Amino acid sequence: xxxxxxxxxxxxxxxxxxxxxxxxxxxxxxxxxxxxxxxxxxxxxxxxxxxxxxxxxxxxxxxxxxxxxxxxxxxxxxxxxxxxxxxxxxxxxxxxxxxxxxxxxxxxxxxxxxxxxxxxxxxxxxxxxxxxxxxxxxxxxxxxxxxxxxxxxxxxxxxxxxxxxxxxxxxxxxx
Length: 175
What we know:
The chain has 175 residues and is of the alpha+beta class. The chain is built from 6 helices and 4 strands; from the N terminus they run H-H-E-H-E-H-E-H-H-E.
């Protein structure tokens, strides 16, 4: 392999980000990787919303905080200056799996490009609210989509985390 397996083994979820914005050219490359994720029957029924606008980013963070039940002032996005929100068509039978593969590609591509990332949940709940549906409409998205996840991205603040030892007895062989 061309180092892909090593990159997969080293990628970790980042929970401390610098405030510096990731250049658009790098974000575009991360998004491109997401668009090439495997998907059910080649349907390509996922979409990605890039959020780099600080006001909207903070509004989404606050909505996410409330859904998560955390105290005021908690940032569920760990200070990441940008996020890529993955949604998938609700009526597509493999929508959750397809969106999850997009999220995986986004995180691996970010790591390869020297950018930290973390999958943040509660996108499903966010986009089930009137606020979430209105946000989609404001972007011209009229079809029914389910939020799969937020990929928080930014430059890593502090030491890069190391992988934990892998647990034993997780593979079973039938020959």
